[in-house]
Amino acid sequence: MRELAAVKTEVKRSRFYAHLYALDDPDEIAEVLDLHRKMYRKAAHHCSAVRFLPGRDPVEATKNDGEVGHPGKAILGVLEKHALDHHALVVSRLFGGIKLGPGGVTRAFRDAGESVAEYYLHEG
């Protein structure tokens, strides 16, 4: 696994730290999530998506980590949109005190994921 790009976004005082990783094996997501839990100790949620295609055992998986809405699914959509087929996208949220609601949370995670993917594809 190697980190390709990282971006910080902010929505209503909540900070979203999005990281894009290239994977050699889809099981590396556990290591990536452990790393995020250490880097962002104050984060309440570490939502993720893994897309590892094609392969003998194709994998598309998401984790919402207890967050409202469907942020994992939205993050997976970013990987699909940009044809990132051997990648993981993890977004860690540090709550800023203002509730966003399920739709707002999903949009914020998706937008953070989109930001890091765009940065990687155009700047990285």
UniProtKB/TrEMBL annotation:
Ranges of residues in domain Impact N-terminal: 12-114
A GO term from the CC aspect: cytoplasm
InterPro entries membership: Impact, Impact_N, Impact_N_sf, Ribosomal_Su5_D2-typ_SF
Cross-referenced Pfam families: Impact_N
Example GO biological process: regulation of translational initiation
Similarity field: Belongs to the IMPACT family.
Protein known as: YigZ family protein
Organism placement in taxonomy: Archaea, Methanobacteriati, Methanobacteriota, Stenosarchaea group, Methanomicrobia
